[in-house]
Structure formats: structure tokens, C-alpha cells
Design goal:
heterodimer, A: mainly alpha, two-stranded antiparallel sheet, 20 helices, B: mainly alpha
């Protein structure tokens, strides 16, 4: 029942948001997120025995079956937290903010649904549904290019997910039309799993994204409103990684093993391509986009070849990346709210006039580049260890990405916050709302970095 | 040969009730018009809505689904007839709820509704037709009514053109159908579906040519590629409410008779040669695959919403035809569910177009940018219908496509149905290109200007029902599917 509430709360809250006044909508939506956060946290404290099963469409095997997966708990907590932070970072008097908050809550609801779905059909439904609010958010608040970019993003993901639909149809046909519960789909013949692998894999590789499939990412991350990008980059991209663990690892593990070399090649190229591109990226948002690409490439590599250690590292990294990169996108939202551009060449010396924001940004940037004591470090360590057990050369090459991360991470911070002060429209330091948004993320960076076992890793061993 | 004498089963009033209801509505609408005080507004619309809704309720709750042949076995009332009649009655009720301005101002409101009902009567006749002669009569009955409806805006040139185009091309299709009937009769000596199958031997080539021509004539009504050429112009020129009605109801009726005719007479008969069976299979298969791919490709290039929806109708015809191709009981259920969903999403989308005309919006896509700021309700409804037409969850369109593709994977015919699934998925992707482009435009940031007209309650009720239908058929998919299963196969 708690699991259903996890979806229903933001969904109903979002629908209600559409009917509220623009002024109150962010407050209302923030409260809904807070309630969801409390719910998710209480679930995290006692995750045992939570599941729900309600019949829906017998003829198609799609039922309302929910259960927790070891990888889902961190993401369930991250979702409301990041959404709440995004709401707090909203521009004052954003036009039609009631609609905006409604869409954002529906996005959260579908993501929460995805993370707890225990039925492949239901999983697919949530996987698609989350695109709808993302489409509307980008089209409406993405400026003149919004509609075109939103459409590009949607079509890219659809190219990935339609094959998955075909895969589900075939799986359902082969299993004789019973329920598509994940449990029932285990143990298909190895050759079937290998044959079906790419039908499923494409969807998640586009969503992450990995190297040749990342065409949507840059446009979206540069065009959509920054608080939305924080949720998309911090959380929605994790749907890809989560799908790899849940569906590829759960339904077609033989396929995953069979193609692990190809996948690791793709992952490695993604890591290096993202990292090198981030070095030359001209603006804050594109550095963050490329760094996401690079980080999630490592996640996909760890899931493909890293074994148990790689997988738990990947889950930890999904959380850490959400906190750090999500936080950094929120910082850039804060800068944009003050009228700053995202162009690095026009930024500089901001730490002099906005020391508080500068120091929080520094922590988030250090967390993102894998500084020990902060959240990405244990995650990257676990992943590299896992990859090392499979192949030392892969581990060596992929840790190149981490080294480069130090370079572009510092470039991100130094370019905008150090150096000579550029002329700037407004220098007001952090507002109360922004403190409330960023401080929990910064605190989590430390908490997870110092106590990864207590905060996240214990969940990934199953319960 | 059965003696042509009416037997008690021929007077099964329960089975005949939908036909009698429509015939009665037709006459009643004319009577109302004759005895109407010229200064008071016509009440024909209200009557049509009320009686059509009653028809839907009767068909869903009251009708007996056991197959009953009436009218000298020329018309059968079974699950297929019942569900397709629900779609036709439903679209009649939804469309009658709105009365667009140009029809209101034409001063012929009574005739308008009478003709709509007459068209619906022809379509319901077609849904249960068991004989080639009745098929032809039914097609003519609804086509003649639709010609008149298409030219219901006599002052508009596009409307006249649309009516004439439809008339000429449709007459050609009727001529082809008659020719096909003659050939089939020549080959088998019967016009009754049940006997054509039994008398197949010896009529090879004639029957083959006849049935392919017959399929062509019906494909014209379904507006499948390559018989689609009339569709965009006619849909665009006709009054939008008429377009809404014919885009759903005509297709439904023609698909019902196609579904009944082919497997019954040819597919399941053992003494039919393999080549013949393969020939009509390939014909249907190509119709389906061409419509899905070309319909969607052509729609991508459209810049006018109404025309875009016309091409989308062509593409959707391909999906529906692939269910006819599969022909299995599972495909029948999938087809019927798809049609029910199609009723709400397509009538809904066209009603939004009608509503946009009513409030003075331009229909070109570029001028629809930012519609959500000017008309939030209409934009949200249209977005929902377009999501459903694309086949995205959580709308019912997703379940319709899921069920359809599932039935196709299960269908006999080796790789042929699998190619249809592949084409269907590719088509869905292409269709996302224009459906979602429209949604992105609707929700883009654009100019705000005050609406020039207001919408009547009828519009909002009809659109609300369509929205409820699209969401309700998804939430209640299980109930609806098992109802279809029950009335179709009694289990």
C-alpha cells in the first residue's frame, strides 16, 4: 500500500496543482514532495515485505504489481528530494507556474512508479509516461526552440522504447500470455535471451545515454529550464541505468553476459568521449551534460561487466550523480534566475560576490569529480574494483575518465567562480529558498561520501 | 437453397431493434422538421443524442449476443455486429452533441440530423450484412447520406468540391463493387456469404478477381492506401462534425464487413486453393502495410491540423486492416477494442478541430503555437487524443496497439503478420513525428489573444465524454476486453 501511495501522492498532488493559483502552486507542490520524501524515507527504514498486486488487464498480462528492488530505494528517496529542490529554485513569478509544478509532480510520480514496478508491462507504461510531462515542460518553458528540442528528445527515446514494446510482446507471447511479473519472466532459454537482448537494451542505452545514442542530450540540457534539467539529468537518466539492472539483469541476463564486451566498449567510448568533450565545452550547462554522459558511461560499464561490486557501485553512483549533478544544474538555475548567462567566457569571479553559493558549488563540483570524502568517491571506487575483476585494462582506461573529471570539474568551478570578476547583473547571494534547496544535497554529498555503507550500500545487498 | 419465407427467427425484434431505432429516428427527425414552428430552434439534435445514447445502452446492456440471422439471413446480429454498432451509435451520439455554427446557420438543422441518422442506419446494416446485395444497399444508403452531408455548407467552395469529389470517386467504388458482386455471383451462383464459401470449387479465377475487387471497393470506404486519394480533400472540405462522424463510423462498418466476408468465405474453407488464399492475403496485407507506412509518411508533411488528421485516419486504417488480415478470434477482439478506443480518440480529435473553428482559431500548425495559453481545455484534450492516437500509455490507445500487435504475433501466416508488427511499430514512430509535433506546438510559448467565440455546452460534454472514454477504456481495459470476448465468443 505504501508503494502505491508513493506514486499516488505526487500524481494526485500534480493533478490538484493544475487547479491551484500560480502563486501557491510551488508551495503546494513542495509540500507534496516533502510528504513523498517522508514516505520514501520511512519505506527505506523498513523495506521488508512491501509489495502490492492488483489485477488490471488480464488479456495482456499487465497488472498493477509493485515491489521494491534493491536498486530502487536510493532512487525513491532521491526523487522527491531533487524535485523539491527544483521547486525551491524556481524563478519568482514564473509564468503559469501551476502548470509547471503539476507537470513536475507527474514526472516525479511516473519515475517513482518506474522504480517500484514489478511487472514488465507496467514498467514500460511508466517508462513512456514520464516522457509526456518532460515533453510539455520543455516545449512550454524551453523558449523558442523548446517545441523542436522536446520533440527530438521524445523521438529519440521512442526509437529506443518501441523495440522494447516488441520485446515485451514477444516475451508475453512466449510465456503463454500469463502475467508479465518480472518473477515469471526469469529463466527463458539462453538463446532467446540473447536474441531479445537488443530489443530491450536499446531503450535504456538511449535513456542513459551512451555514445552514439546521445544526440538528444545536449539540446535538451541546454534548452529545457534548468530546474527541469536537474530532475531529468539527476533522476530521469537513472531510469536507463535502473532499467539495465532491473530488466536486462532480471529478464535477459544471459544476453547481458553475452554482449558484455560490446557494451563495455560502448561504455568506455562514452566515458572518454564525454570527458574529452566536457574539457572543451563552452558553457556551464554543456560541461554538466558531457560530464553526465561520461559518468553514466561508467555506470553502464560497471553494470555490464562489474559483477556484484560493480552493480552496487553503480547504484551508489546513480544516487551520487543525482545529488551532485542535479545540484550543479540547480546552481546554474540559480545563476540564470539572477540573469547570468551560462557561457563560461562571460562568467568569472562570482565567488567574490556570492561566497555562499560559491562554496556550496565547490562541494558539489568536488563531489561530482570524485573527491574522497564526498559521495562519488566510494561509488567510483566500487565500480572500478568491479570492472578490475573482469579486466584490468578496462579498469585502467575507464579510470582515465575520472582523471579527466578532475580537470573539467575544476574548469567548471574556476571558470565561473574564480578569476577576475566579470560584469554581472545581480549579485545577491543565496536566498533562503536556495539554501533550503542546496543544503540537503550538500549534506548528502558528505554523508554518503563518509558513510556509504550506512546510507546506501546496505540496501543494495537486498533484503 | 433456403426457402425465401419469413420464419419466426426472421422477426427477432430484439436483434432488429437497433435498425428499427435508427429508422424511427430518421423519420422522427423529418416529422419534427415538418411540424416545427419556424421561429423556434430545432430539437432534432437533442432527440438524436437521446435516442442514440439509448441505442448504445441497449446494445451494451440489453442486447442478446447469440448470433441471430434475420431478414432472410441477409443480416446477422452477433458480437461483431453488436460492438461495431456500439461504435456507430456512439459516434452518432457524440457528434450530435455539437452543432457547429455553419450548420446552425444553414437553416437545415433537422435535415442534417436526419441524414446523419440515415448514414448510421446504412452503416449498422453493413456491420451485420451477410449478403452481397445487402452490402451494396447499405453502402449506397450511407454514401448517399454522406454526399449530402459533405456539401452542407453550400456557400463554401471547398465544401462543394469535397462533396463532388466524394460523389464521383465513391460512385466509381460502388460500380467496382457491383462488378465484383457480379463476378462472385457468376463464380458461385450465390450472394450469401455462407454459401459462397461452400460453392467455391470451379470458380477459381472469377472468384479471385471478384473478391479482390470487392476488397478494393471496401478499402475505398476504409480509406486505405492506395484507395485513399479522396480522403484528405473530402475530410478537409466537409463540415468538421461530419468528418468526425464519417472518419470513425464509415471505417468501422467497412471493416466489419471485410472481417466477416473474408475469413468466412475464403480463409476457412478447405477446398480453396492455396494460391487463391495467398492472393487475397497478400492483397489485405499490402493494403495494411502501405496504409501504415505511407499514411504516416504523408501525414508528416502536413501543415494543417484537419488535413493532418485526415492522413492520420489513413494510417490508422492500416492498423485496423492488419487485424482483419490476422482474422483470428484474438484479432477480432483486438479490432473491436481498437475501434472502441478509436471512437473516442478520433471523434474527440475532430471535435477539438470543430471547436477551434468555432472559437475562430486558424487551423495551420504554425498558428496553433501556444494554444494552451489561449484555450487550455481544448489544448489539453487534443493533447490527450493525440497521445492516444500515437499509442502512448496511459491512454487507451496504448492498450489497443498492444492487443493488436499481440494478436498479430499470434496469427497464422508465417512471417507476414510479423512484418505487419514491424511496420506498425515503425509507423508509430513516424506518427509520433507529427502527433507529438502538434502537441509540442500546442504547448509552446506563443501569443496570447482573446478567443473570438465561445463554445456551447454540447461541445464540452462531448469532449468530456471523449476524454473519459480514452482514459476509462485504459483503466477499465480488462472489463471492456472481457465484455468484447463475451459478446463475441460467449466466454
Amino acid at each position: 500500500m505504501m508503494l502505491a501511495l508513493l506514486i499516488l501522492l505526487p500524481a494526485l498532488g500534480g493533478v490538484f496543482c493544475y487547479t491551484t493559483r500560480d502563486r501557491f502552486a510551488p508551495i503546494w507542490a513542495g509540500l507534496v514532495c516533502l510528504a513523498s520524501l517522508v514516505l520514501a524515507a520511512s519505506l527505506a527504514l523498513s523495506p521488508e515485505g512491501q509489495s502490492l498486486s492488483m489485477p488490471w488487464v488480464n488479456a495482456l498480462g499487465i497488472h498493477f504489481e509493485l515491489a521494491l528492488h534493491p536498486a530502487s530505494l536510493p532512487l525513491l528517496v532521491l526523487g522527491p528530494l531533487l524535485t523539491m529542490a527544483s521547486l525551491l529554485m524556481l524563478r519568482q513569478n514564473l509564468e503559469r507556474s501551476a502548470e509547471f509544478c503539476g507537470h513536475l509532480l507527474l514526472l516525479l510520480a511516473s519515475l517513482q512508479g518506474l522504480f517500484v514496478a514489478d511487472n514488465l508491462g507496467l514498467f514500460y507504461i511508466f517508462f513512456e509516461v514520464m516522457l509526456l510531462p518532460a515533453l510539455l515542460l520543455t516545449a512550454r518553458w524551453g523558449g523558442a526552440r523548446g517545441p523542436a528540442v522536446a520533440l527530438k528528445f521524445f523521438l529519440y527515446t521512442l526509437v529506443g522504447s518501441l523495440p522494447m514494446l516488441l520485446g515485451i510482446l514477444i516475451v508475453s507471447f512466449q510465456s503463454g500470455g500469463g502475467s508479465l511479473k518480472f518473477q515469471n519472466l526469469q529463466g527463458m532459454p539462453a538463446e532467446t535471451q540473447v536474441a531479445l537482448f537488443w530489443l530491450f537494451a536499446l531503450a535504456f542505452l538511449v535513456k542513459l545515454p551512451v555514445f552514439p545514442l546521445h544526440g538528444w542530450q545536449m539540446d535538451l540540457y541546454r534548452t529545457a529550464p534548468a530546474p527541469v534539467v536537474a530532475v531529468i539529468a539527476g533522476l530521469m537518466s537513472k531510469a536507463g541505468a535502473f532499467g539495465m539492472i532491473r530488466v536486462l539483469g532480471g529478464v535477459v541476463p544471459e544476453g547481458l553476459a553475452h554482449y558484455s564486451e560490446l557494451l563495455s566498449g560502448v561504455g568506455l567510448i562514452t566515458i572518454l568521449y564525454g570527458a574529452v568533450s566536457a574539457l572543451g565545452a563552452p558553457c556551464l550547462r554543456s560541461i554538466l551534460a558531457f560530464s553526465s554522459l561520461s559518468h553514466l558511461g561508467l555506470v553502464s560499464l560497471a553494470i555490464a561487466v562489474g559483477g556484484k561490486s560493480g552493480e552496487s557501485g553503480a547504484v551508489l553512483q546513480m544516487f551520487s550523480h543525482g545529488v551532485a549533478t542535479g545540484g550543479l544544474f540547480l546552481v546554474s538555475a540559480g545563476l540564470e534566475n539572477r540573469g547570468f548567462t551560462s557561457e563560461l567566457s562571460k562568467l568569472g569571479g562570482l565567488a567574490k560576490t556570492m561566497p555562499q553559493m560559491g562554496s556550496l558549488t565547490l562541494v558539489l563540483a568536488m563531489a561530482s569529480l570524485g573527491c574522497p570524502g564526498l559521495c562519488s568517491f566510494p561509488a567510483e571506487l566500487a565500480m572500478i574494483l568491479g570492472i578490475y575483476q573482469a579486466s584490468w585494462s578496462l579498469a585502467a582506461l575507464s579510470s582515465l575518465g575520472i582523471i579527466l573529471a578532475g580537470w573539467y570539474g575544476l574548469r567548471f568551478y574556476q571558470g565561473a567562480w574564480n578569476g577576475p570578476l566579470q560584469e554581472a547583473p545581480q549579485h545577491e547571494d543565496l536566498t533562503q529558498a536556495e539554501w533550503l534547496a542546496l543544503l540537503p544535497l550538500v549534506a548528502l554529498c558528505f554523508a554518503v561520501g563518509l558513510f556509504p555503507e550506512v546510507t546506501i550500500l546496505q540496501w543494495t545487498r537486498g533484503f | 437453397m433456403e426457402p425465401l419465407i419469413a420464419r419466426p427467427t426472421d422477426l427477432d425484434l430484439g436483434a432488429l431493434f437497433p435498425l428499427m431505432l435508427l429508422a424511427g429516428m430518421f423519420l422522427w427527425n423529418f416529422l419534427l422538421e415538418i411540424f416545427r414552428n419556424p421561429r423556434s430552434p430545432s430539437s432534432a439534435g437533442l432527440w438524436t443524442v437521446a435516442l442514440a445514447t439509448f441505442g448504445v445502452v441497449y446494445l451494451v446492456l440489453g442486447a442478446d449476443p447469440t448470433p441471430t440471422a434475420v431478414l432472410h439471413k441477409m443480416w446477422v446480429s452477433d458480437g461483431l455486429t453488436q460492438v461495431t454498432s456500439v461504435v456507430i451509435f456512439g459516434s452518432l451520439a457524440l457528434v450530435s452533441l455539437v452543432l457547429p455554427r455553419d450548420i446552425r446557420e444553414s437553416g437545415h438543422v433537422g435535415e442534417y440530423f436526419a441524414l446523419l441518422v440515415a448514414a448510421a442506419l446504412g452503416m449498422v446494416l453493413l456491420c451485420g450484412a451477410q449478403s452481397l446485395i445487402l452490402t451494396f444497399l447499405a453502402v449506397e444508403l450511407f454514401s448517399l447520406s454522406l454526399y449530402l452531408l459533405c456539401i452542407f455548407r453550400p456557400d463554401k467552395e471547398a465544401c462543394q468540391e469535397s462533396g463532388l469529389k466524394y460523389f464521383i470517386l465513391s460512385s466509381l467504388a460502388s460500380a467496382i463493387m457491383l462488378y465484383a458482386i457480379a463476378l462472385i455471383y457468376g463464380a458461385t451462383g450465390s450472394t450469401w456469404f455462407g454459401e459462397i464459401g461452400a460453392r467455391v470449387e470451379g470458380g477459381g479465377v472469377l472468384l479471385m478477381v471478384g473478391s479482390v475487387l470487392f476488397a478494393g471497393a471496401l478499402a475505398f470506404k476504409v480509406s486505405a492506401v492506395p484507395f485513399h486519394l479522396w480522403t484528405p480533400d473530402v475530410y478537409q472540405g466537409a463540415p468538421t462534425s461530419v468528418t468526425a462522424f464519417m472518419s470513425v463510423a464509415t471505417k468501422t462498418a467497412a471493416l466489419a464487413v471485410l472481417f466477416r466476408f473474408y475469413p468466412l468465405t475464403l480463409g476457412l474453407v478447405s477446398n480453396l486453393g492455396d494460391t487463391q488464399r495467398i492472393l487475397w492475403w497478400v492483397v489485405l496485407w499490402s493494403l495494411a502495410i502501405l496504409s501504415m507506412l505511407l499514411g504516416n509518411l504523408m501525414a508528416l508533411a502536413q501543415t494543417d491540423l484537419k488535413r493532418l488528421m485526415a492522413y492520420s485516419g489513413i494510417a490508422q486504417a492500416g492498423y485496423l486492416l492488419s487485424a482483419v488480415f490476422a482474422g483470428s478470434p484474438q484479432a477480432q477482439s483486438a479490432l473491436l477494442y481498437y475501434l472502441l478506443v478509436y471512437l473516442f480518440m478520433n471523434v474527440g480529435a475532430f471535435l477539438v478541430v470543430a471547436a477551434l473553428e468555432e472559437v475562430g482559431e486558424e487551423l495551420s500548425l504554425s498558428s496553433l503555437v501556444g494554444l494552451s495559453a489561449r484555450q487550455p481545455g481544448l489544448a489539453a484534450a487534443l493533447a490527450l487524443f493525440l497521445f492516444s492516437l500515437t499509442g502512448l500509455p496511459p491512454t487507451a490507445g496504448f492498450f489497443a496497439k498492444f492487443a493488436l500487435f499481440g494478436a498479430l504475433l499470434d496469427a497464422p501466416g508465417g512471417l507476414l503478420p510479423r512484418y505487419l508488427v514491424a511496420a506498425g511499430l515503425l509507423g508509430s514512430l513516424l506518427s509520433a513525428g507529427y502527433y507529438l509535433k502538434t502537441v509540442a506546438y500546442l504547448y509552446g510559448s506563443g501569443v496570447t489573444r482573446a478567443p473570438r467565440g465561445s463554445l456551447g455546452t454540447g461541445f464540452w460534454v462531448a469532449l468530456g465524454l471523449c476524454v473519459l472514454g480514452v482514459l476509462g477504456l485504459a483503466l477499465g481495459a480488462n472489463e471492456v476486453m472481457s465484455w468484447i470476448q463475451r459478446v463475441s465468443f460467449g466466454a
